[in-house]
User: What shape does this take?
Amino acid sequence: MSSSWLRTGRSPGPPLQRKLDLPGAALEAASRGDFELQGYAFEAAAEQQRRPRTVRVGLVQNRTPLPADTPVVKQVAALHRRVEAVVEVAAMCGVNIVCFQEAWTMPFAFCTREKLPWTEFAESAEDGPTIKFCQELARKHSMVVVSPILERDSAHGDVLWNTAVVISSSGAVLGKTRKNHIPRVGDFNEFKWPEILEFRVIPGVSLREDGRCFHFSVKPKKREAWRLSIRPRPSVFQSTYYMEGNLGHPVFQTQFGRIAVNICYGRHHPLNWLMFSINGAEIIFNPSATIGALSESLWPIEARNAAIANHCFTCAINRVGQEHFPNEFTSGDGKKGPTPQTVSAHLPPAALVWTLGLWPPGTPDENGVGTGVEMGQAVGAPSDRGPAGPGRHMHTPRTPSGWPAARFTAHRDFGYFYGSSYVAAPDGSRTPGLSRTRDGLLVAELDLNLCRQVNDIWGFKMTGRYEMYAQELAEAVKPDYTPRIVKE
Amino acid sequence: MSSSWLRTGRSPGPPLQRKLDLPGAALEAASRGDFELQGYAFEAAAEQQRRPRTVRVGLVQNRTPLPADTPVVKQVAALHRRVEAVVEVAAMCGVNIVCFQEAWTMPFAFCTREKLPWTEFAESAEDGPTIKFCQELARKHSMVVVSPILERDSAHGDVLWNTAVVISSSGAVLGKTRKNHIPRVGDFNEFKWPEILEFRVIPGVSLREDGRCFHFSVKPKKREAWRLSIRPRPSVFQSTYYMEGNLGHPVFQTQFGRIAVNICYGRHHPLNWLMFSINGAEIIFNPSATIGALSESLWPIEARNAAIANHCFTCAINRVGQEHFPNEFTSGDGKKGPTPQTVSAHLPPAALVWTLGLWPPGTPDENGVGTGVEMGQAVGAPSDRGPAGPGRHMHTPRTPSGWPAARFTAHRDFGYFYGSSYVAAPDGSRTPGLSRTRDGLLVAELDLNLCRQVNDIWGFKMTGRYEMYAQELAEAVKPDYTPRIVKE
Assistant: This one.
């Protein structure tokens, strides 16, 4: 009888799994290597016709060891060394399948929107240096290695993909799968005119917006303070690095079970999990790179729900730490730091009209800084009294035109990757998460028989009515689709 | 600025909402009526073009006030009175849309597999007594009423449906929607030959199974105890009361916003939520009747994930308490009490062959009891020494044939409905759950603007690639579909 199944039946909260008794040498090596090591087991009922199909998976979460402005080859080499050490410990723990975090060979530089040097981290998914490195690991430890990288596809016009390569325990490249859903969120994307969240109307001050600037008309001699809050809206432009995957939903038959890889943002799309499951995945890895302000409250829900909805195991992996980039960039809602931004000032003497302007990112203003907010006196003489307000929200450089200016805080990091990698089971049970701040290896022993056992109990595939949904979705995507809304 | 959005950005756990300041008279009335009353608010960012679209929803969870063997009309009347009192309080709290639990006018008798008197609770969704009752409530309080009932569809051969009727605040029947997914789980269904989970082989005892009986061959004069564990497997037969809904995924445009109803087991199917959302639902109610052993560990995950995945509010409602039925019935894994069942005994003297037999449910054995396990001495003289073992697992009636018998614990209740109704928001935030044991009313104030705001931030509809999934699903349902499995 599946103890985890019984346990889920008994406890309303997430049932935690039995701790694995990991070898002392592995625990020592992990503490020497300064990374967390945890192990848990998921059990299933005994069957007459099948023996327990026990497999141990290893989830690796880590920070980038070297600063992002270190030469590319050095960064990659340092990451190879770091992961090699973790995989050594995974081998001591009897791990059969190991999976690394999204784009694990590089800092998550897509937030910068710069191409060089970041695109130099891209490599071939068939014979790039990282693949060769992973093949050695696989052969040495007879371990399946799932290696998510930035792929350079030279066979198709040198395009980039967000790809995971699956390497068999024999060392052969079993195949690759690509990120099916690309975010249009915050730092992943481009600039869009922000919405005004708050404008405290005060006597004698009025506001006009023209899609490029906010214009404040102020009665002469007014001395009141004004306050404006702005939240940049997420972009709806394309991701600037890679496009949606074109490989569908392949499942890989490994020596230890059928696995699939749902990369990062695909986690938010239940249909993505479903198609991997329909194709037979018993374990779906979700290598990710996501930050607190963006997704941390969703993190414990989505992969766990996917395990429940698809009668399979899911492995959610997220990197840790903060990555700093040489050049400043600005953000959507994904940005670190207080949201919304606040720009505030006391009006200078004799101000008649004030203008608050923004530039799109990548369009440096006269100071060579990207997106910014300029607050300048459009009418009247230049003033020495620059804007005041919460300093950390503002810079006060002078534009060449000599007007005082206030800027969004452009920043050099994407935010804090919160780790918290975990494994969820088809019966709704889950392991605790790894640390939010430390590198770590999570070892989970899975009896894959639990997938079919829970399938036979809940039967979501049987009751899923996919034919109906295939038809409804086909209708819904038509340009002239009319939603079925019943009115009185 | 949406405080809930900010909060989700800050806290890894489920962010809880601001408590509503509910009128004292309402709180007093609730305590007089002996039900819990809680209120929370979800906020959204201020917009320039839309004012806040604030709506208050009321979720009602309750036990059945009268025993299940009370005359049907009395049970219905008592439920009407109970819910009427709760709705009075909802009105005091300014509730605009109220939703009751699944099949709220009756005990959840489907586990009995008996037809009478339970099917007498079914009524017309257009002009049945409960609909008329709800229309009065709607008119009196200018409140939209969502009333999930067992529907008798006299226009289509008197078939039964698991239906929710939506009544406009004007009192008009706006329309109905039907349960799209029917469980094939445990008590919801019919009998299937169980699997043997454990048979402790002991010297001199062998086991043979013929799909109808377990035969134990025992060497004469053996005295050892034997032990057999059996777990009934969930059925794959049709539900015996109603079939899958045939009304698709209608969304109802009410005075207070666009709503849909995903009844109970549809909660487990992400595509069901998705189609309601694609059709424009801003609030999806999930009236349920589910028990701890079956689903409690999934409860906090599924509706919350649906709110996240579909940029809408979800309202999960579950009844409370335990309902006792006149006649015994047996269960699948959904059953209350220890699973698996254990049948054990010391062998009587001179036993040669023992037989353990089962009957399908609804086929009363000689004692007029449904599904049972008979353990009888097939060879040799009747023995006075009946089976022994954990008493609560066994009855020891004698069959007319005079052999000692052991039965599964047939029971008279479905299990414990754990309440815990809650509301989840598109940003991943949620309210606390209502009590696991008490009747209750949960009032939630929703700013529906949050749906489109989160949609614009996360953009799951935009990045959903539904065209691809419509095609993949259409392929996947074909009888000759070959899953995409990559082999070495």
About this structure: Chain A touches chain B through 106 residues (CB under 8 Å). Residues 197-232+339-407 of chain A form one domain. The CA atoms of residues 311 and 459 of chain A lie 9 Å apart.
